[in-house]
Amino acid sequence: MKVAVATDGTTVSQHFGHCAVYTIAEIEDGRVMTKTQIDAPPHEPGVLPAFLSGKGVDCIISGGMGGRAQGLFAEKGITVITGASGLIDQVLEDFLNDRLVTGSNICDH
Questions:
Q1: Which end of the chain has fewer surrounding CB within 10 Å, N or C?
Q2: What is the pLDDT of residues 16-36, one digit of tens each?
Q3: Model pTM above 0.90
Q4: Domain residues of the chain, as ranges?
């Protein structure tokens, strides 16, 4: 499984489309095996879901994402988790252990 986390420094970005970097975590047997950062493509409708799908991403975690973008990710078979915040490593650990607490999706457009 591959999980993409919208990244702002060492924390989850509050809007997936405004971050310059994504952290891609490859997960096996309930553990993060590798973690790499990739530069985001230009922010245009439909580009990021296709880009991340091409990288084999199964799930994206972000602070916020609009409904249209969520639909485009769903079309690619990518699970969307919004309302996440905090340090990337902690968010990934919490996700892996089914204890990720999310708040409101901060993006409503």
A1: C
A2: 888 999 999 999 999 999 999
A3: yes
A4: 2-96
